[in-house]
Amino acid sequence: MANKKKLILDVDTGIDDAIGILLAVKSQQFDMLGITTVCGNVSVDAATLNTCKVLELVEAADIPVIKGSATPLLRPPHYEHRVHGEDGIGGALKDAQPKKKADAGFAPDFIIDQVIQYSKQVTLVLTGPLTNLALAVKKCPELIHHVKEVIFMGGVVEGQGNVTPVSEFNTYADPEAAKLVLDAGFPSLTQVGLDVTRQVLLTDERIDAIQNETLAHYIRESTSIYCQRYFERNGVWACAMHDPLAVSLAIDKQLVSTQAFHVDVETKSEFCDGQMICDFQHQWEKERNVQVCMDVDADAFFDLLIKTMNA
């Protein structure tokens, strides 16, 4: 563990979060300090249950799971059952009764405790709404000086949204939290948005390349509803690996190209709440607060994902 990167995953475990968890665990690249859960794709209770199921599937039940916020900072929850199924993981593992339960504690407090304890050693990867991290920063503003890096999946800077015409789900679900995190002053903050995650499409052919029968069966079953929804909207039978791409950057940053920009999130609009605004031309003359992922090597990403699942 001494040479491994210390990692906390913060998830709202839907279909692609679960695959991100599998990638993190199977890669054996991390000292997994814990997985924190948040309201997002599904309720925080469902996200916590799904996380425990997935960890048992991959024989990693020793990793702590800490439940976080049950609601966004100011708004009611906005679930995505149509995309992720009623349970959040497409009905896969529906009969599983995990022995693993959530550990004691509250996710924002856990994040604070671990980041302070291992100052400048902890990577945070967030694949759901940023509520838990926002609450942690509100309680402990000096947290920003102790974390090593923050990688979050959320937003879109050049393309269309996926829950409204302009907004990606995570930033739409809790735009106030996203704004707080962007404004906090983290020295290393990387945004993994739809601009790149839409380029990493999991197809049947790529699932067929997974030789681990247990994981291949799970991934195929869990992504079926996800692929159906993607086909209805885009005419392609596949699904985007939004959250696994964010996790993969904690393993290999060379998978993407990034540029530093000032980025903010709309919170007070009739039509555009959750929209991520990127100052490409530096018109605001504000500090460049985010490394924005601009392009991705999709083949290299899937080489990593498939190799890891087959390990």
Task: Report what the structure shows.
This protein has 311 residues and is of the alpha/beta class. It has one domain: Ribonucleoside hydrolase-like (Inosine-uridine Nucleoside N-ribohydrolase, Chain A). Helix content is 38%, strand content 18%. It has 12 helices and 12 strands. The strands form 3 sheets. Strands 3-2-1-4-5-6-12-9 form an 8-stranded mixed beta sheet, sandwiched between helices. Strands 7-8 form a two-stranded antiparallel sheet. α1 packs parallel to α2, α4 crosses α5 (131-139) and α5 packs across α7. The radius of gyration is 18 Å and the shape is globular. The two termini are 19 Å apart.
Q: What's this model, at a glance?
A:
With 311 residues, the protein is of the alpha/beta class.
